[in-house]
Amino acid sequence: MPKLRQISSAPVAGYIASSTASSSVVRFVDRGTGHVYEANNISESITKISNTTLPKIYEAYSNKNGTNFLFRYLKNDSDIVSNFYAELRKTGTSTTETPFEIKGKFLSPDIKQVVVSPTGDKVFTWNIESGDGVGYISSFDEKTKIKVSNIPFTQVNIDWPENNTLIVSTKPSAIASSYVYSIDTKNGVYKSLISGIKGLSAKVSHDGLNILNSFKNNDSVITSILNIKNGSSQEVIFRTLADKCIWSNIKKDDVFCAVPTEIPDAVYPDDWYMGKVSFIDQIWHLNTTTGEVRLLANLLQLSNKAIDATDLSLDPKENTLYFINKEDLNLWALDLNQ
């Protein structure tokens, strides 16, 4: 198998990576049809495992087994976003080409943001209710649902880096100060982590001790690591957006980032979000304790394509790094052992 492999041939709404004894496995949802596919790192074949058609899905979030999903899609050729719980169920016949069909139900229309728990069995959703932002922890089907926060923020990014910690940050923009807060899942207590920085985006490590953050610096960006305990900050040797990084879950001090070979002058991160600028990336590894950095892959050399990587994820054994190319929303896999 090649070191770098394009998995999908059409835009992907979301994916989930898992591991078996011998391979890395990824399930992904086709953005146009809602069909679910499966691939692994020991065969080039792609298997369609569900052909239930649910068109125009632009976000898909999965449990750890790739059997339950939360779909967000545009309903009936409109701009109205619907939230749908989708469950893969066996078709009950051996003659069908696909072993599963999708059954489910509609969820709260107030859901605006979704993130899956570290254990892969729950979701944290950010809902807009009566003009306020309300955070809930729930099962994928909303049968169990607990309110954990209620604040006057509507435009936010959310994350769930470790079991007891939720992250809520205001949407980053070069023209507005940004703020990052943690929420204790046990008691709902808020804590300010970073405040008052323009263009700020952040990723908290899985042990909750460090924050990789990026922020506006004139027409470019600065990337740094903040130690939450002592408040010290260390600038990273490379420059990238925090959106393009993923912390290791095995080695808590390690982080993998898609790093642009060049960052053109622009208004960051706004112009990148809006597609006014794009990057050609390399994949780097950083040990935040030692400061050691390693170039893992030059994506242009390996693929002969301009790849602007986002939505990075690792399989549980961290043998494979998956990501979406922001340019066409195709799914890629990088073998970290080659």
Radius of gyration: 20 Å
Unreliable sequence segments: none
Tell me the fraction of residues in β-strands, as a range.
Answer: over 45%
Number of strands: 28
Overall form: globular
- Oligomeric form of this entry? single chain
Strand order of the largest sheet: 1-28-27-26
Mean model confidence by pLDDT? 95
How many distinct helices? 2
The string of secondary-structure elements, in order, is: EEEEEEEEEEEEEEEEEEEEEEEHEEHEEE
Could you name the key traits of this structure?
338 residues; mainly beta; 4-stranded antiparallel beta sheet; globular
Brief summary:
The protein is mostly beta strands and 338 residues long. It has helices spanning 270-273, 299-303; strands spanning 4-6, 12-19, 24-30, 36-40, 47-50, 57-62, 68-74, 81-90, 100-106, 111-116, 123-129, 132-138, 145-151, 156-162, 165-170, 177-184, 190-198, 201-204, 210-217, 220-227, 233-235, 245-247, 254-260, 281-287, 293-298, 309-314, 320-325, 331-335.
